[in-house]
Amino acid sequence: xxxxxxxxxxxLLLLASTANGYTVFVSNEKDNTVSVIDSTxxxxxxxxxxxxxxxxxxxxxxxxxxxxxxxDDNVVQVFDTRTLEFVKNLPSGxxxxxxxxxxxxxxxYIANEDDNIxxxxxxxxxxxxxxxxxxxxxxxxxxxxxxxxLVNTSETTNMAHFIDTQSNKTVDxxxxxxxxxxxxxxxxxxxxxxxSEIGGTVSVIDVKTRKPVGKVSFQINGVNADxxxxxGIRITRDGKTAFVALGPANRVAVVDTASLKVERYLLVxxxxxxxxxxxxxxxxxxxxxxxNDVSIIDVExxxxxxxxxxxxYPWGVAIAPF
Amino acid sequence: MEDxxxxxxxxxxxxxxxxxxxxxxxxxxxxxxxxxxxxxxQPAAPPTEGRMIGVLLVREIQDRPLPLSLLDIPPPDxxxxxxxxxxxxxxxxxxxxxxxxxxxxxxxxxxDELLAEAESRVATGQHFLVLDVRPQTVLRLADALKGKDVLxxxxxxxxxxxxxxxxxxxxxxxSPSRAMLADALAQYLVWKQWRRWFLVLGTRPEDQAFAExxxxxxxxxxxxxxxxxxxxxxxxxxxxxxxxxxxxLQIPVFTQNAAAHDVVVVADEAxxxxxxxxxxxxxxxxxxxxxxxxxxxxxxxxxxxxATQFQNRFRRSANRTMRPLDxxxxxxxxxxxxxxxxxxxxTFAEIAAYLRSAEFDVAGFKGQKLTFRDWNGQxxxxxxxxxxxxPVSVSPQPGFLHQFSTLxxxxxxxxxTKCRL
Lengths: 322, 421
Prior knowledge:
heterodimer; A: Thrombin, subunit H; B: seven-stranded mixed sheet; five-stranded parallel sheet
């Protein structure tokens, strides 16, 4: 691990952010770095070196830890979000891409894209608790708000696999459109939304019956249908509005969760994949892979207010509550 | 010359042995499922019954000349390895749906044998045949199996006539046509503003066909062929046996005094001379076409659109990198699996109908869905533009527009087709 370069005392000074500001972390897949953005000034305050091919990132321990899938190092790295210092490595299984944390804060569920399994890891002890076989190229990971059901999507098998977190066994498999990338539960836990990148749709699945109850389709004037490739999904806490990143269509769709109709398309940077709200839900950050920037959306006004240059091929985004 | 012949013989022997091993491996996996091992002469038990969906890969052993580079010698399981991976991928999905896929392979150098064997396999329940055979054998199989519950996938022949005047209603094509490849390359050259092309073609019929596709692409996209020269190869021995001394002199002289050009386009499908052109031409010009910068359905170093995991999976299963034929065969078998999963069916009629319907699409690590053209059964797909080491670009290029799908800027489009299904 090449971690010594940033372990300077100077790094500590960066954490003196303003009282209600948040710290935004963006993984840069091609640069092997994470860009740190101050949500108040909207400036990159620091770029930290991490493992190879950082993709999924998530916060743990109430935001004190930043967990990074270093896909090409076959490891999950833990960084301290206040000091930006490397804490430890977690076992991840091969080629970790995306992961989700149990709502209680432990364990961590990791999609191993190259090995058709989901690895369950105790982040405190650093041990593997279980490996769950799923479809080909597991990627998307969503967990119900009560932590009882985990949904994994497999990109080539085109399924949402429902996993019981008590037994760590798959209990059902729901076919969705081609290349499912992301799974997101609604805040009340009644539905899980699954984006299909090649299919160009978002399937809405009822969690109790595990049956698809609706599908969101997208149409943008002047944009080729083939370029509309939904990936990241975020749903507001009130459950009313979903934001869907549409990849090379360079837009984020704003979807009314009741009617499943798109209310607006917001133009962002190129190849937008992942999204994250600030904890107050006032801002939404988007990672734009091919334009090397993040766009910032004002959630209330539904306007893109700024773009901030980060590293090459920004992939994931996570926002700490301080 | 002697050396070369000896090596060629040796290679064929090895190829034969490995071929057998590959076929056995394919069936080895099925042993666990209790399926019988079948050899080429013994028709298998009906493969498509209940939850089982059979795929028959038909290979015609073709006596191709050896390529110039040792790196380019086709592995004995070229194409088979792609089928095996697709079967594994299908089965991974199938285990959640109660579907099982099984691969059988028949191969022969004699089209008559292939035909007889294919017919007998069809009689015992095979419905999906994936073909890596000569173009004329595609037509013979299609005609012999006409009216039966059979769908054929041409994964090996790029010939235009199979998609055009000789198209058949029971054939889908997963391999790109020559016109698609030439159009993909032409778009990139025009995008680069390299519009003046010096065309060098071999004497074999495939070279003529590729050259014709290049001429058509030039006219279509605004390239200009400023000069054509025929490179006659004497056949038989690989010229490299003469050593670099002669080649180093021969190619500059051959390309001397050509009309002003931006690129040299070589049309040498068999790989008999094209590899000699890069870095040896009289003028310092890039070499493109069948060698140098090429248009291809697959590249072993493609990593976009999740291809890394696909490449890794292939390497683990075949112990080598994936070649275009592997990919074209994978697409055919994976397409069958996709249709079976979507229809939740193992019956031929339902799967075949879905494959032909407007609803069908399959993901193939090309960043967008792949679909079949309804007018001639050709799979639409982005085409990679690549050097031997890395992909350079992907066509269709920006700015080449189409009223329905930009993928239809590659190859013969609906209004031009001679195919009447």
